[in-house]
Amino acid sequence: MAKTKLDENGRVQIPLEELKRLGLKTGTEFELKHDDDLLVLKPIRKKKSATKSPRLSALEKKEIEESENEFATGTSKVYNGPSDLLNSLHAERKENKDKAAK
Hints:
The structure is a single chain. The chain has three helices and two strands. The chain is of the alpha+beta class. It has a two-stranded antiparallel sheet. It is rod-shaped and about 80 Å long. The N and C termini lie far apart (77 Å). The model has no long low-confidence stretch (mean pLDDT 88).
């Protein structure tokens, strides 16, 4: 067990190996808990923010709206497994390619 002591300004220095082990950095905030003679410093971990997605194009927004509408009205296509889905996607891609070639 590592030891440390309280300085004249009320500060306690946490040993470097403990800081590294816990991934603590300068500015880390702590929640203090105490129970009788026990004092616990619990680091307040900031929640990682979700990665921002790039803005959707008008076409992507339209496709999402159409998909949501299909789902809401119960007209969504149901696939009989991954192969069925992939075959449908490949057929759709070929159809779009053929239309673009004309």
